[in-house]
From TrEMBL:
This is Lymphocyte antigen 86 isoform X1. Residues 1-20 form the signal peptide. GO terms for biological process: innate immune response; positive regulation of lipopolysaccharide-mediated signaling pathway. Residues 39-156 form the MD-2-related lipid-recognition domain. Pfam families: E1_DerP2_DerF2 (PF02221). SMART domains: ML.
Length: 159
């Protein structure tokens, strides 16, 4: 997994910028017996690597994730917006602070534009059972001045 993620980062580093209208490839964040999570970068400028070590549909708290990206912005402060849809209907929106000036939750908080970050470790998430169905999720990571750091649209298939 480490090697794969490193290879992925090198590959995204080397990918030419300004890809025009071409979409980024679809990646699998995790696949378990009954749950599959696919995502695609919706940032015109870059792709990023993301995976979840295990994804049972009965989600456990403190999932271990891996995330790698090259920063387009300084991240003194970093926020995540999530919008969840099912069959085109909006179900849930939430915003979550990841790095705050006085409360940096992760080692990568405060890193600078141009740096490559790679995080492998737990995130503090609620544990719950995902109801069967197909969901669309829009995710955006952005900074204190509302500059996008990463953007993704994901499909979650739970059977
Ligand atoms: C992301 O959105 C595009 C455009 O709406 C869609 O074609 C694609 O299937 C989506 N990808 C995922 C992984 O949900
Ligand atoms: C989530 O945000 C979208 C766009 O801002 C809005 O249209 C939608 O009604 C919101 N949904 C909920 C459940 O608040």
């Amino acid at each position: 997994m480490q090697v794969l993620m490193a290879a992925f980062l090198v590959w995204s580093l080397m990918s030419p910028q300004g890809r025009g209208t071409e979409a980024w490839p679809t990646h699998t964040a995790c696949r378990d017996g009954s749950l599959q999570v696919l995502y695609q970068s919706c940032d015109a400028l870059q792709d990023f690597g993301f995976s979840v070590d295990q994804c049972p549909k009965q989600l456990k708290p403190n999932l271990n994730i891996r995330f790698g990206i090259i920063l387009r912005e300084d991240i003194e402060e970093l926020f995540l917006d999530v919008a969840l849809f099912s069959k085109g209907l909006s179900i849930l929106n939430f915003s979550y602070p990841i790095c705050e000036a006085d409360l940096p939750k992760f080692s990568f908080c405060g890193r600078r534009k141009g740096e490559q970050i790679y995080y492998a470790g737990p995130i503090n998430n609620p544990g719950f059972e995902i109801p069967e169905g197909e969901y669309q999720v829009l995710l955006e990571l952005y900074t204190q001045d509302r500059s996008t750091v990463a953007c993704a649209n994901a499909t979650l298939l739970c059977s």
